[in-house]
Amino acid sequence: MIITLTANPSLDRTATLDAPLARGQVQRVSGVTVEPGGKGVNVARAIHYAGHPVTAVLPAPDSDPILAALRQLGVAYRTVEVAEGVRMNLTLTEPDGTTTKLNEPGPLLTDALVEQLAALVVEQATGAEWVVLSGSLPPGVPHDFYATLVRRLRPLGVKVAVDTSDEPLQALVDNFPDAAPDLLKPNSDELAQLTGADAEQLEAAAKAGDPSAAVSASRSLVDRGVRAVMGTLGASGAVLVTSEGAWHASPPPIVPRSTVGAGDSSVAGYVLADCGGEAAPDRLRTAVAYGSAAASKAGSALPKPEDLNTAEVVVTELG
After folding, report:
1. Residue 274 to residue 128: CA distance in whole angstroms
2. What CA–CA distance (Å, rounded) separates 246 from 237?
3. In this structure, are residues 268 and 3 in contact, taking their beta carbons and an 8 Å threshold?
4. What is the number of alpha carbons within 13 Å of residue 294 lying toward its C-beta?
5. 3-state DSSP of the chain
6. Which CATH number do you get for residue 27?
7. R_g of the chain, CA atoms, integer Å
8. How many CB atoms lie within 10 A of CB 307?
9. Which segments in the chain show pLDDT lower than 70?
10. Which domain holds residue 139?
11. What SUPFAM superfamilies does the entry give (predicted)?
12. Cis omega (within 30 of 0) on the bond before 181?
């Protein structure tokens, strides 16, 4: 069983433009989709499509449309009842794959609701193999929420993955090594935030065939207690660093359509490969195949196993 937590779930409304976005102008859209979202929900959806047991944990009213959407997809969930409905996020995707996201803050959670949410995650994690903590935190949730959860989950023997940004990410790292997860998935901006590196240089160097800067930044986090750091570098692929070694994976050729859910799909791919007993290079290969497949899909659609192109993911051991 894999458990995902989405503290700030959303209904993701994606509008596909048939021309580049022109600020201040009236534009028509060629299509609109609405999907249940939030990073943990996206991870759960991708895992469910792979046929692996997964439960999504989230705060939501019993009557919220996001729960109806999850039921329609067949994704199992457990909720903490809240009064206010989940947020609605708007994504604009341009023909070249450029993605603009407008995210609402989400409903305010009281201290009591925060504790109920944490307790539900711990309850569901008993006997699970992985817990994935993903996304932003809504108003009312302390920045160190993920750090606190990692500490509460550790006695259960479950593996923990964290994918977040900004203050929650910094608070997690500030609590290393006590709150160091089994997998941390920063993108280039987040690696830069944590290590003082330059995000554009990380991606550009990797694209030019030299991912050493991204590896060095990731290794500094492994040295602080994280079991594995998977740094995603956009079109330049990803690096994976553990105490045993480092690897870079170049993605297969795709036509990019939307970056929504690409990072979430990468996390799903990694965790699925780990549950399947795969070694580190193949965990990275599967993760990059999942992320690339998501980027090739329109809107907030997520990949299924038949969408993957693992054969053309090139993994290089870096030592």
Report:
1. 13
2. 14
3. no
4. 27
5. CEEEEECCCEEEEEEEECCCCCCCCCCCEEEEEEEEECHHHHHHHHHHHCCCCEEEEEECCCCCHHHHHHHHHCCEEEEECCCCCCEEEEEEECCCCCEEEECCCCCCCCHHHHHHHHHHHHHHHCCCCEEEEECCCCCCCCCCHHHHHHHHHHHHCCEEEEECCHHHHHHHHHCCCCCCCCEECCEHHHHHHHHCCCHHHHHHHHHCCCCHHHHHHHHHHHCCCCCEEEEECHHHCEEEEECCEEEEEECCCCCCCCCCCHHHHHHHHHHHHHHCCCCHHHHHHHHHHHHHHHHCCCCCCCCCHHHCCHHHCEEEECC
6. 3.40.1190.20
7. 18
8. 17
9. 319
10. 2-317
11. Ribokinase-like (SSF53613)
12. no
Residue linked to tokens 């996020």: 89
* The token pair that represents 180 in the structure block: 């160091």
Give how many domains the chain has, as a whole number.
1
Look at residue 202 in the predicted model and tell me its pLDDT: 84
Whole-angstrom distance, CA of residue 179 vs CA of residue 181: 6
Amino acid identity at 247: W
Measure the CA dihedral 172/173/175/178, to 10°.
Answer: 100
Residue 230 pLDDT:
98
The tokens describing 178, both together, are 């006590």
Amino acid 60: pLDDT? 97
